[in-house]
Specification:
heterodimer; A: 462 residues; Rossmann fold; 2 domains; seven-stranded mixed sheet; 35% helix; B: 830 residues; Purple Acid Phosphatase, chain A, domain 2; five-stranded parallel sheet; 27 helices; PNKP_bac (chain B)
């Protein structure tokens, strides 16, 4: 991977003093993941270019990877790290040009203080967000930014662009600032770090961002990505940035995204509707089939009348998250005794599903392949046979209200039913297994397209 | 005195402390069969006399007793049991597990017991305890016969106890020593003429007295097994009983009791029963017979047992079927189940009881054959089959030949009795009979291919998610291909893998001939194809109109809608139906191009790396060239940069070769190389020459043939030819080849190893792998190779079970295990 810094200041070779690297030498710097070298492809009075080239040792990289390494691409054996300017290059740059980055230059102090005409080129910069994001991050800092997307493969133009951009920055800036911009923004654009993000990263960010980060319009994105989306660290960083700048902490906190504001109430409405229905049905024991991270379970635990609550999911990861979110470890005995969580699949009959007043399949059936629905029906209605079954599923007709939605609401949905389709399925299933079914819309109802969610409440005949 | 106890029973020893129970138990039973309360008390308190631990000790004792009984083990309880309540608890445990319960009372004089206790330092509780226990015993002895034991054996005095011996009685239901072959015959209901026709059809020779059939023998020494309901409704119940009675008496048949015999016997004995459901005909017919015969028939029918275990326990016969937990057990509810089946307590619109579908849940190894519920056609459900085809209602009389599983039927001569409700076709098929217990937890799977495979619980849990969220319908998922290991790493300059090591490995294991098959650089695919949707319904129970599936090595469908691909492939496989004599086939294949399934991987992983390299390396090279132009010493760096640029270009060529545009099915190819199974055959065991020959019958643009070469490992020339072939394949950038023993090998021989090409390996080990071969040669193959062997055994086991016509859960078990094994982490580059 390669990064070049050029200047056309006169004499341009002063760049060597600023970087503390002699233009006529090739210098080597050993890094844990490979070797960095600095050399000058051109060095004359009018123009001088320093190149930082990093040769990554992929074997060393694999070996240094921890079990919880945040950057999974390094775990793959074919990866872009030997070529792309990622956080590895940022670390090398921070290290090799440490003094320059601090703005110190005993030989030419006035040069280090002042702005220079600079040009920085990075041929392969991994950039999640494309050329546009590169511009949004660099332009507010006074750079003229030329960012070109690199195509995935010229032989297969239909594949489109890769996530790399070829970046060229021009501007008149202090060299130390330029280096700090790169030090922070390279990993931000890559959106992945090769090392574990420890709390001292906050210090590094604040130091390198001094004088520019607090005022940057994209500071939220920069902070979040730099800190690897670790919320606790983000909050510390926002607090400290607020100390640096004039703004209050709240103003710096990321806004809750609008999309969330719309979906949260539907989640809540659905959950509330299910809990209310269970109360009306007089259920005391409830099994949540497909409990996910345990949102409904949490709501059920809050209602004492639900004496026995069971959560089932096919994903052991979901169950682990549910256990954590429900604070299972710290739950008082009396409450804990009401709750059971276990792994199960709705296409396998399971004696543990039997013996409940009610079973809930909240937003579950649409994740089952249509040919397997008959198996689910038999497992739930034929074998477990709770007195009541509550099924909620999206109403496909309502999708016209989601402006940017193409296809289905979730990538794992195998189908989404119209009201008619849901009614037909529910009625046939009820008939086959001796249940009666009623239907209730959930969420704001549209006269033409119905409500966003549809709910069927099944009750056993005998 | 000889004490006779059932082979499977709970034996309760009754006697005061010091009466010699433990000594008696040790003399007559295995140490593991005897559970003593003192021992249990010791386990939970470290002190066999700690009375405060009594409750906990008995909880433990109960638990051990229950566990043993549920596993079908004779168990002896060594506790005083002098109190009624204590004995009741044990009798209840025996009933709970449907085993008989006998008591053996050891009655010794008080002073003997006291003296014995006094002589034992660990029994320091004095005479009072014994005196109290003896009082309890005396009180019990009078009425212990009414406790509920099958039999109470009382041994009085030291001498009788010392001289007693114990012998075992076989259970009435135990006819395991009858090994057949059998002709099992369904519900007859007085259809004597049809029975005679059926027996004749089956090759039996009837013996007649006064023109009436009174017996039958089969020249091949077969044994007939009647599943009950010989009588009622039909025209000649006495005639049927006469014939069956004769056969049973002559030892050429056995017969279990049906619910109609049960009721007829009571009626004949003069009990008040409601005369309905065809009993009226039987009573009328028997009234017309000589009294002598009717008495004899009643005695015969009264002596019928409710179920039998035959052929070493591999075959169980009961009139209404029997769940596994009841096989060989004895209790009122076992008998009721065998006679009437398991009912839900509900009735249907005809007023008939709704039956609980016990067969759907049946997981036993024994075949269960029964009748009782008339259907139009017998159908296997989890190794059970109902033979009642409603002869008396105008259906047919059906026999099952065992062990060949052949069905023989003769039609009813007329409708003898109008059915209450029409005979139901087994049209409603259960959509799934898989249970969580079939796959979850740590499992040991026995294969008939030399290995017993252990599946770890956490791997099964991981597989459950993949299976239930992403895999195709389990009815299609009859096989998953095993992983395949590379050969030992090559020591040849510039190579990581080379055919030489593969040939050496097989030759060292005594393989004389191998076949080298070209790897197509597609995605491994299994195609299960039925000739028609009807065949799919018949053979696989898939009734959604689909006629096949094509899935990946993790069981995922290749396309969202498999319909068009399956339709094309079924048409292409037309020549196979006749060649194989089967209406369906399962093929092991590669699906091409790689892009069709792995497009995302290629774009995100491979093309992206290529793009980064393509952008970065030329820039680096020109920067270094400029530096060199300035006289800086960068020659080594420049060499390396140029070489890496060249490697990157080769890398891009390596993946590009396997990508071509696919538009719908246009451009998709299937390359089958092995026929896994067809009706009744586990063809995977056939020699590869047969597979390749048979598959060469396929002539359709969607089929790509697999180029191959047979190699005589004893011939250097033959080997060289194969190496040259491999070099030619891989020199053009081909993925490489698979080397397999030409015929199936037993033991720990790899079923195949893959020898991948030098250029191809760039997309596995990275563009520059050729620069660090020494390091890469240290790769560890052991785990991959061991997994390949185990998964191969599991795959073959699944196919063997499929060929045997095993129920779905039996086939699913090893298939699921392959998926579970695959969640075990292993170096993905191998």
């Amino acid at each position: 991977m390669l990064l070049t810094i050029s200047t056309t200041a006169t004499p341009a070779t002063d760049l060597g003093f600023l970087l503390h690297k002699h233009p006529d030498r090739v210098q080597e710097f050993s890094q844990s993941f490979g070797t960095a070298r600095v050399f000058y492809p051109e060095a004359d009075e009018s123009r001088c270019t320093a190149a930082l080239m990093l040769e990554v040792d992929p074997v060393a990289l694999v070996r240094s990877r921890g079990r919880n390494s945040p950057d999974f691409s390094l775990g793959q054996y074919v990866n872009d790290r030997p070529y792309a300017a990622s956080s590895l290059l940022a670390v090398a740059l921070g290290d090799v040009f440490r003094t320059a980055r601090a703005g110190r230059c005993n030989a030419r102090p006035e040069l280090a203080e002042g702005a220079l005409p600079l040009e920085i080129a990075i041929p392969a910069l991994p950039c999640r967000g494309g050329p546009d994001l590169a511009r949004r991050l660099f332009e507010p800092l006074g750079w003229e930014c030329e960012a070109l997307a690199v195509p995935l493969d010229e032989n297969f133009p239909e594949w489109g662009d890769s996530r790399y951009v070829s970046l060229r920055l021009r501007g008149s800036l202090r060299l130390a600032d330029a280096l700090n911009h790169l030090y922070v923004l390279l990993p931000v654009l890559d959106d992945g770090k090769h090392y574990w993000i420890a709390p001292d990263e906050v210090d590094k960010l604040i130091r390198a961002g001094e004088g520019w980060l607090a005022a940057h319009p994209e500071r939220t994105l920069i902070t979040r990505r730099y800190l690897g989306r670790r919320r606790a660290l983000e909050r510390t960083a926002f607090a400290r940035l607020a100390e640096v700048g004039d703004e209050t902490e709240e103003a710096l906190e990321p806004r809750i995204e609008e999309e969330k504001e719309r979906s949260v109430p539907l989640n809540t409405l659905r959950r509330e509707a299910v809990v209310r229905t269970l109360e009306e049905l007089g259920a005391a024991s409830v099994i949540d089939l497909g409990c996910g991270s345990g949102q409904l379970i949490g709501a059920l635990l809050a209602v004492p009348r639900f004496a026995r609550i069971t959560g089932v999911d096919v994903s052991t990861l979901a169950l682990t998250i549910a256990a954590r979110k429900l604070r299972l470890e710290r739950m008082p005995d009396a409450k804990r005794a009401r709750l059971t969580l276990f792994q199960g699949a709705l296409t396998y009959t399971d004696p543990r599903f039997s013996g409940y007043d009610a079973a809930v399949l909240m937003e579950v059936v649409e994740h089952v392949d249509p040919p397997r629905l008959a198996a689910l029906e038999r497992v739930v209605f034929g074998q477990a046979r709770p007195v009541h079954v509550i099924v909620t599923t999206p109403n496909a007709e309502y999708n016209v209200h989601y402006e940017f939605l193409t296809g289905m609401r979730h990538p794992d949905h195998r189908f989404e039913w119209t009201r008619e389709e849901f009614t037909a399925w529910a009625t046939a299933t009820a008939e086959l297994y001796g249940y009666r079914v009623t239907f209730t819309p959930i969420g704001e109802e549209d006269p033409e397209h119905g409500a966003p969610t549809q709910m069927g409440v099944f009750t056993r005949d005998h | 005195m000889t004490i006779r106890i059932p082979e499977l029973s709970l034996v309760v020893l009754v006697g005061v402390s010091g009466s010699g129970k433990s000594t008696f138990a040790a003399r007559h039973f295995k140490p593991t069969q005897v559970i003593s309360s003192d021992f249990c008390r010791g386990l939970v308190s470290d002190d066999e006399n700690d009375q405060s631990a009594t409750q906990a000790a008995f909880d433990l004792l109960d638990h051990i007793v229950e566990t043993r009984l549920s596993r079908g083990l004779l168990t002896v309880v060594d506790a005083t049991s002098v109190q009624f309540a204590a004995r009741q608890k044990l009798i209840a445990l025996a009933r709970k597990h449907d085993v008989l319960c006998d008591a053996i009372v050891l009655d010794v004089p008080e002073e003997v017991a006291i003296e014995r206790n006094a002589g034992r330092p660990d029994r320091d509780f004095g005479a009072g305890v014994v005196i109290r226990q003896r009082k309890d015993l005396r009180r019990s002895l009078g009425k212990i016969g009414r406790d509920g034991f099958r039999r109470v054996h009382v041994l009085r005095g030291v001498e009788e106890i010392d001289n007693a011996t114990v012998s075992y009685e076989k259970a009435w239901t135990d006819k395991k020593d009858l090994t057949g072959p059998f002709d099992l015959i369904g519900d007859i209901h007085g259809c004597r003429s049809e029975l005679e026709t059926l027996l004749t059809e089956l090759g039996w020779e009837l013996t007649r007295v006064d023109g009436r059939a009174v017996g039958a023998v089969h020249p091949e020494g077969r044994t007939a097994v009647f599943v009950g309901d010989l009588v009622d409704r039909g025209p000649d119940s006495p005639g049927v009983v006469r014939l069956v009675m004769g056969m049973v008496a002559a030892g050429t048949a056995v017969c279990v009791r049906g619910n109609h015999e049960e009721k007829l016997v009571r009626a004949l004995k003069g009990a008040k029963v409601k005369v309905a459901h065809g009993l009226e005909q039987s009573l009328e017919q028997f009234a017309a017979e000589p009294e002598e015969f009717t008495r004899e028939a009643a005695a015969f029918l009264d002596g019928l047992i409710s179920h039998y275990q035959l052929d070493e326990g591999r075959l169980v016969v009961a009139h209404a079927g029997l769940k596994e937990a009841y096989h060989g057990r004895a209790s009122g509810r076992v008998r009721a189940f065998a006679l009437y089946g398991d009912t839900t307590g509900e009735t249907d619109e005809y007023g008939l009881p709704v039956r609980y579908p016990w067969a759907q849940e049946y997981r036993g190894r024994a075949m269960v054959v029964y009748g009782h519920t008339p259907t139009t056609k017998p159908e296997w459900i989890n190794n059970t089959i109902c033979l009642d085809t409603g002869c008396v209602f105008g259906g047919s009389l059906t026999a099952l030949r065992y062990p060949s599983r052949e069905i023989v039927s003769v039609p009813a001569e007329k409708v003898w009795y109008e059915p209450v409700k029409p005979l139901s076709a087994p049209g409603y098929r259960d959509p799934v009979t898989l249970d969580i217990g079939d796959v979850s937890g740590t499992r040991h799977i026995e294969t008939r291919f030399g290995t017993r495979v252990k599946v770890m619980e956490e791997n099964a849990a991981a597989a459950l998610e993949v299976m239930s969220r992403f895999a195709v319908d389990p009815r299609w998922l009859v096989y998953l291909p095993p992983t395949m290991a590379p050969p030992e790493t090559s020591k040849l300059e510039g190579y990581l893998e080379h055919p030489h090591e593969a040939f050496e490995e097989f030759a060292a294991q005594g393989v004389a001939e191998v076949v080298c098959e070209e790897k197509h650089m597609g995605s491994r695919a299994v195609a299960v194809l039925a000739r028609t949707p009807e065949v799919a319904a018949e053979r696989f129970g898939v009734t959604d109109g689909s006629a096949g599936a094509v899935y990946t090595r993790t069981g995922r469908p290749f396309f969202d809608d498999l319909g068009p691909l399956v339709a094309r492939l079924r048409a292409a496989c037309e020549p196979l139906w006749e060649a194989l004599g089967s209406d369906w086939v399962a093929l092991d294949c590669e699906l091409l191009p790689w892009l069709a399934k792995a497009g995302e991987l290629i774009r995100v992983q491979y093309a992206a790396v290529g793009a980064a390299a393509g952008a970065a390396l030329p820039a680096a090279t020109s920067a270094l060239e400029a530096a060199a132009g300035r006289g800086l010493d960068v020659s080594e760096l420049l060499d390396r940069a140029r070489r890496r640029q060249d490697n990157a270009a080769r890398f891009r060529e390596a993946y590009a070769r396997y990508c071509w545009p696919v538009n719908g099915l246009e451009g998709v190819r299937l390359a089958p190389f092995q026929i896994l199974a067809c009706e009744g055959r586990n063809t995977a065991l056939e020699p590869h020459a047969w597979h390749l020959d048979t598959l060469s019958l396929l002539d359709d643009p969607i089929i790509t043939p697999t180029r191959h070469l047979f190699v005589d490992l004893t011939s250097a020339e033959s080997r060289e030819k194969a190496v040259a072939w491999w070099e030619e394949l891989t020199g053009q950038g081909g993925e490489g080849m698979v080397v397999k023993p030409a015929v199936h090998q037993r033991g720990r021989v790899q079923p195949g190893v893959k020898v991948r090409g030098r250029e191809y390996l760039r997309i596995i080990y990275g563009p520059d792998y050729t620069d660090s071969l020494d390091l890469l040669r240290r790769r560890f193959l052991g785990k991959k190779r061991s997994m390949a062997l185990r998964e191969h055994a599991l795959g073959l086991e699944a196919l063997a079970r499929l060929a045997d016509g095993d129920p779905l859960w039996r086939v699913h078990e090893p298939v699921f295990a392959v998926l579970a094994m695959e969640s075990e982490p292993v170096d993905p580059r191998l």
